[in-house]
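Title: Prediction job returns without error message
Component: structure pipeline
Severity: low
Priority: P3
Assignee: unassigned

Description:
Job completed but the reporter wants confirmation the result is attached to the right record. Sequence as submitted:
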Amino acid sequence: MFPHHLTIPLSRAIRDTAMNSIPDLIRAVFRAYETKDRSAIEPLLAHDLTFSSPVDDHIDRSTYFQRCWPNSEYLDSFEIERLLVEGNEAIVRYKATTRDGRSFRNVECFTVGDGKIRHIEVYFGSDTAESVNDGEIKSVVAAWADGIRRKDVRSVADQFLPDSVGFYLAPPLVADTPHEENLADWFATFTGSIGHDLRDLTIAGSGDVAWGHALLHLTGTKTDGEQTDVWYRLTLGFRKVAGFWKIAHAHESVPFYMDGSDRAAIDLKP
């Protein structure tokens, strides 16, 4: 349950922001993260916004939306525990809860000018650069999975490096079709949205390289009426390039029965 001061309606928060209320301006930012509403946060941030953290050094507004905003998909809620304002600056201590039920505390300092946020600086609590990378990578995976559910070719492709390698369930041994073309052809075999749900996602890495594994449940209706309902194994390799985590390798597999039939074991469930 959030304090009343955090859960005010977004329309009221924006209205109060117009009246230069720094606390309400900041609460509206956190609310936009909770609702994953980029259109709500954009007018709250100055065009010359800068953002700093232990892993960011005064990145600009465009880079902020590329690096930080995607984490909204991974974050579920915020509880503001302390909000102090002095002049045009505010300090906020909050508890954040992720979609998988974990929580962490951070402190953020906001600088405001002309009714908009001009600078944000984050000081991690129990969080570390390693856990920040973990969260950013999970946001990439979440955006990739959501893009597949919506059959959004551009959204999915944006999560991959241009030279990424794909070992997919379908032939050939190594995907040799341009990624966007491969996605468009695959999406066209389904009617409606695609069920694409990950279970037990685990991320590990060091420096600019990481990997993750999960079980993935794929469901949907094919254009010929066939129902798809299969669990398979997923391994992803990641690289951090120019400050952004991207998928460098995707590997999908199912076991096969060792009874001489060589049948793919697509009827297994976790």
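Comment from assignee: result matches the submitted record. The mean pLDDT is 87.
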